[in-house]
What does this fold into?
Amino acid sequence: MTSPPAEKSQPIRPQTPETGEPKRIISTVSGALRRNGKTARPPAAAPPAPAVHVENLDAWYGDFQVLRDIRLDIPEKRVTAFIGPSGCGKTTFLRWVNRMNDTVPNARAEGTLTLHGLDVLSRRTDVVDLRRRVGMVFQKPNPFPKTSYENVAFGPRLHMKLTRAELDTLVEWSLRKAALWNEVKDRLKTSALGLSGGQQQRLCIARAIAVGPEILLMDEPASSLDPRSATAIEDLIAELREEYTIAIVTHSMQQAARASDYTAFLYEGRLIEFGPTEQIFTNPEKQETENYITGRFG
Amino acid sequence: MKPTVLQDPERRASAMRSIAGRRRRDRAFLSFCVATAATSVLVLIVLLASIVLQAAGHATKSPVETIVVETRQERKYGADPASAERVPSADADPAALFAALDENGDGQLRRRELARDARASFGRLVDRFDRDDDDRLSAAEFADAADDSTIQWMRRNLAIFLSSPPNPEPAEAGIYPALWGTVYVCLVCALFTLPIGVGTAIFLEEFQPRNRWVKRFHAFVQLNIANLAGVPSVVYGIIGVTAFVGMFHLLGEARKPALEIGVEYYDQFVTAGDQILLVPVEAAGSPLSVAREGLEARTPDGRTIEMHALPPGAPLPDDPQLLARTVREGDEGGRISEKAWYYTRLPFGRSVLAGGLTLMLVVLPVVIIASQEALRAVPDSLRTGALGLGATRWQMIRRVTLPAAIPGIMTGSIIAMSRAIGEAAPILIISGIVYISRVPQHLMDDFTVLPLQIFDWAGRAQQPFHELAASGILVLLAVLLSFNALAVLLRHRLQKPLS
It folds into this structure.
């Protein structure tokens, strides 16, 4: 489906949900939505200012086009979930926000992608500075084979010259933020590889926020973890949304419904629908979205 | 509470490292890696060129060519056989020879005494057995005593073996210079191989080329490294001779080097008062100084003295002060040189440096391939993790990739170094000398190595030399095993923080 040219200039902004009874309640995820009622903030009357603004974004790996004409705004200090079947381009999109795709040979992108006004895709944009402002957490926990302390201190050391005391404070603060401090404070000097999978992933989150990013990208952060650790990560996301803009890719519909404020549904490289999570899950506009959410395909 | 570095923009600004600086270091590192890779490839080009050129030299030569060899004797005394008789012969007077040794007072005599001592101790044992009239010393006691004596001998023989230069007398021959030659050559080899090998491996594994030409260069290097690893080591010996020893004959000969650093030449005179006088000379090739009145000279301990020259036949003065600086007019000095430890010349000649560099050629492909394997074993997730935090490539490699790969790199390199220790063929071509009586003093000194010494002994007809060869092999094995033990230890030590 190609969008008409008139729509092209106007990026899809999340719409405020209609008040009143939703038209349909989709049974599989409505429970998750209700449980989440206490933590999810109701979307503001006007959508918040965009942290990331995307227009006409096309992306290729070699000759294969992965993203087609993506237009959306990721709102500031909200959690935006990206859902869609495998291979629909969610991860690729995320990896363009901090230009991780630079490391992939033959990867290229055209269009507009700005982060607080910074032209991300421009050749002149320094990826080193960009990646300091855009933290990323990967699908598989990837702590460095160093101590927990060294892992968290790694990012700040790359970018800054800090005193020992400053670094200590920063590490403690980041670990507290990642709800890991109580578990690792006695073994900061032992290898991070000795931590459990869930702890490792929270360590990676602590490592990402230690450099003070503006936005956190999470690529299926809980998919390789057991349900309990996954819940811990979700709780952590709920807390971090106060301070960070978070973009999360997930395969779990429940997770998207529980943890996010806005949801974008991608299918075959196109952005099918983007709106407040509640609306996407209860009252989707497009038939494909409903089919996907209800598990009829994908 | 949020840390000040994240909150206070001023502190944050002052703490930030400059991106330009980080980029600069990144580029410098890339250039280093490219340079090392280029060096590795240059090796191949040099290999092909030198071998083809040499083979061409052989192919174009006329089939019969008479080579006139002038022996040293002939050069000195003329080809007249009668005059050759005047050459002093070593076996003319053993007593005088021994006295001469004594006079030198060097270690050689001490070792001879050691050997004599060992024989004497056995003699005393036999004496004791003989003197015992009532036969109370049992056979067992004798065996014990003999055992003690054997152990003593073994200790002494080992000491002799480890601390003596080679000698035509097997009982007094040792491997001291060869042992140290091996150590020095391998040190030189390691110092050059590790940076070049690891740099090339990083270039091949960590820098993905985007530019078309860099891509081709990348593929070219990769292909050639794989090919070079299989080249027999004797071939490298021939490159070593062409490239390092002779430097393609572009820079003169080792005896008349084009460039020398760290050497001073003197002409040496011995005065009537047995004082040594040194007259500084400009270059190795300048004519010998001739003794004359007032020529400024230096004593070995640094004093400056004016030479006093007497015409031939004139009576010597009585004053010992004057005698100490008196020479005969018209005497020629003997050319000697004083070389600093950093003495360097171009071309290198048959030197430690040339040997080390040739061994580098032998093991470089092995080190590169081992390092590549080690780097490949580092999971990509660590690289993306570091890059995702905003590391430059150099920061990523220095702080994540290399620390994770270093155990593998070390193991591969040390195994490659043990191969270098055991190589005889290239060194045979480079050095070819086995009768070296001293440890190399500087990078340009002659040298020999253990495998070469063993090769020499093993090739002799007499049985005692074969025993020496076997002992030499034991020492070589001990060196090899200690290297491998070091590899295991390092691997163990470096892996600890990972697991």
